[in-house]
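My current task is to audit a protein record that another person submitted. Thanks in advance; the entry in question is below:
***
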Amino acid sequence: MGHYERSIKIAFDKLSGEILEADEVFDIKKDAFAIRRQFHKNEVELYCCECEQKLNVSTSKYDRLHFKHQSPHDYCILTDGGLTPNQLEEFTAILAAKESPRHKELKNKIAERLLEVDGIDTSSIAIDNKFIIRDKEKRRPDVYCKYYDKELVFEIQLSDLSLRYILSRYEFYQKHGIYLIWILDNFDIHHQAQLERDIKYLSKYQNFFRLDEKADIFKLECKYKYPFLTEDNKLLTKWLDKSVSMNQIKFDSESCQIYFYNFGDNKSKTEEDQKRIAEEINEAKRKKNAEEKLLSAKNKSKHIIQEIKELRSRKSQNFISFIGLINELNEYEIEILNHTLNFQNRDKTKKPALNQWISTAVQDDVAFIEFILNCSQIEIDVNDKDINGITAFQEVYQNNSILKNITIKGLLKRGYRLIQEDYTYINSLIDSNGDLKNEMRIYAICNNLTDKYLVDSVFLHSKLLFIIESAKRHEIVGFNYKPNEWIAFANNAIQYYSEYWEYIELAFKNYGLWDQLIELDKKGTFQNKVQAFYLKIPRQKFDCDDVYKDLYPDLNN
């Protein structure tokens, strides 16, 4: 079986000029041995159609005759043990086709027309009679020629070729720097057989060539794949054809392939164009979306500002709904709102908007000012001064048409920081009962808060905080006691603020006031109150816990 698979199924008889196929001449036993006798009497001279080495007529132990290369012989692909029986059949069919009338016609036409091509060495043209021998391997192309400094070979294919056969040609010629030109005859570009697909994917160009027989000179009809973009930027391809002369053909020295149109590079360029167009489309969409987003944000801002203006003109007190409306805005819309309001980039020669509102306000305007201060999304600098150095805080006290408490709280919640000029201004005012002094003490405590939302709690628990501040400073503040009336101060604290005594006692002891009170309590009034307190401890309150922890973290360790 091994001998049969390696046998040669086709031979050329040089004496008769005939092609002999083993399956035909050896099919009838009597005829088969007649051929064998003719061979041994030198009446036939058999050669391999592929490599043109001499062949023998050999037999097997089952009297099965076949052609076989004479030993020793050079390499021939038909003796390759790696060929399957099917591949050997395909190779045999290809060699037989080379002797068909159509095959011979195309070989001769190509050779004849090459004679008129500039750059062709006419003496180099060979039709099916030149072996290219390299490294003990040899190939006999259908047509061979030299074109300037290049060697060209034409392989005409009229029937299917196996990939093994195609690669054996392609790799041999590429290895030795010879340009292989496949000439196809009848094929459907839109319904490609395996042959066309195998040839197409040998390179990135995807060009097919056939002889242009309509032309009087040497021209090849090139069918090539062309990439293009549709109106909606989809990448598609289509097949085009062009009759090209030799000077229009390009040569790839790396793959030893010819091409007219570089599909691979042009596809990459088209993909880049597609990407660029897609980016331009996306950028246009982004720009349009940004414009629509900006327009929407501006419209919302204008609507909110207009509504607030109308509400303010009516001296309305109900601005709470606008805080909710502003809270619904996204980050970008809030940015546009503040850009529209433009409170931050003001004309420095004019009063800040907040100062102006406060200075001209009547009591009905306080709700609007409170809204502005409580709406954290509205960017406004509460610490800004006018050209004369007047602060918003000072404007509140200069305006006798409004109550101070609400506006001051709003300023402090928004982070207003008392400055020395504020203290100086307050000290310049008449303070017959000391109320202004205590108010400033409350404001100063608020300045110490890390969480400004606890301002209301400072106002609510101001007396309790004055007691703790007195203990911390070792100075009575916020109460009408003389500096040495500590026992009276302490008795007042335990009697009237007993619900918060846990906080007060902790402050007294941690700030060193407790021992001082015991020493000063000669009559024992304070100690008696403490003893009575512990006999019947009132329910303690902890509603000041957050502000206590914020202001006095040292008491919580």
In short: The longest strand covers residues 220-229. Residues 263-313 form the longest helix (51 residues).
